[in-house]
Amino acid sequence: MRLNLIFYFIFLSSLAAGDIPEHSAPIDIAKGVADKIIDTATFEFKDITNGEKFENINGLPLSPDIRLVSKYNNWKYWNGVIHIAMLALEKSTGEKKYSGYVKNTYDFILNEKNLQYFQKQYYAALTGKVDGRPSEAFAALNGNTNGVAFQQFFRLDRLDDCGAMGAALIEMYRQNHDPHVHKTIHRFADYIKNEEFRLEDGTLARIWPRQYTIWADDLYMSVPFMVRYAISMNDTEMLEDAVQQALAYYEYLIRPDVNICYHCYYSDTDENGTASWGRANGWFLLAYIDLLSILPEDHPDRNQLIMNLQHFIKGITRCQSQTGAWHQLLDKSDSYLELSCTAMFTYGIAKAVNQGWVHKDYADVAEQGWKSILSNMTEEYDVNSICVGTGIRPSITYYYNRPAKMNEPHGLGAVILAGIEMTNMEKYKLYRPKIMKKN
């Protein structure tokens, strides 16, 4: 009895330290992370000079000091991933609050008065003028629009600004067919078709910070939107474009010796960047998973896409650490263990197993990844060790030194998705591969 009490108090002390018990149901973990986001995402504005909060901005004079309170209801691509995860969570649990949260967020952003106020704020910050007249307050920003709410919505000069948020918006449009949403979706489709920069062979590319560079990140910032748009709007041209992007990015970015991705490809010098950054590889995997999940079964390139996915999963599996997590730099064991790529790989591999795209033995890889996620989460569902936003650099030291933070939104959507697919793996009895007994 005394021994049992000792173990009981040891168990309680481990909870106090913030560890999630390993036996916790994956779907409960996914819901815990999602619920924490919902509880945190207050739909309010604030004056950063005095901290005063407002439920709406009706009647407020235009000021550069009016900002959003919550990071979760801004127009940012990482919130698009969270929205996609929330919608998937509703499908898995039947709980309407998750799609309700996504709808509330888009209603908040696309509210005509909110858009009008912040669009005016955006152009005032950009030009230093209000209604054509110089403004000392806005001129002091020197053209910096980073603090403006919904900045990426107004900017629309890169795939970051439309792809992920647009993909989730299409999912919402399927439910309510809001004409205002329809107009926004078509605006993004037109941008990807006609305005986003491309190489001569049609591959999507960036012009900043270096002209015509392919980023692994951009496969996710484009393809999930493109394939959803193509199927929803019966746009065969967009569907073929999405497939060709996935095939081209594989050719440009995969390291054939190890089957993982470089972060980027420089078209001006015909060479790859130095780093196999973890989250860039995660974006690459999620894009393939999304594409294969929606692409018609009889598409002529489907088998090639699955073969690419199989090679890639084999490559990232070989980079998994002894803890079950993956490193910030996949092939550099002296770089820190990073949770956003770990969650992305756990989700992607589990989904590939559940769909039969890879052998079911890879379930063990996903299970070890899931255990590492739990070991980096507190009992309050705070998630540790998520790398902040990261661009491309020629120095690999840049990647080593990127900070990792708790509850950085770049990784939270992937944690929710991982919990959902690990739950599916349990349903299919693939969570632990069976060991054959010798006679």
Would you report the number of β strands? Answer: 14
Helix coverage percent of residues? 40-55%
Number of helices: 17
Radius of gyration: 22 Å
Strand order of the largest sheet: 2-1-3
How far apart the termini lie comes to 40 Å
- Average pLDDT works out at 93
Helix-strand category? mainly alpha
Low-confidence region ranges: 1-18
Taken as a percent bin, the fraction of beta residues is: 5-15%
Shape: globular
User: Sheet bearing the most strands, described?
Assistant: 3 strands, antiparallel
Record keyword descriptors for this entry.
about 450 residues, mainly alpha, three-stranded antiparallel sheet, about 5% strand
Can you put this structure into words, describing what you see?
- There is one protein chain.
- The protein is mainly alpha-helical.
- It is built from 17 helices and 14 strands.
- It has a 3-stranded antiparallel β-sheet, with no helix packed on it.
- The radius of gyration is 22 Å and the shape is globular.
- The protein starts with a helix and ends in a 12-residue tail after the last helix.
- 46% of the residues are buried.
Gist of the model:
It contains 17 helices and 14 strands. It has helices at residues 2-16, 26-40, 77-93, 97-110, 112-127, 136-139, 151-155, 163-176, 179-194, 217-233, 236-253, 278-294, 302-317, 339-355, 363-375, 396-400, 412-427, and strands at residues 45-47, 53-54, 66-68, 129-130, 133-134, 213-215, 254-255, 260-261, 264-266, 271-272, 326-327, 337-338, 386-387, 404-405.
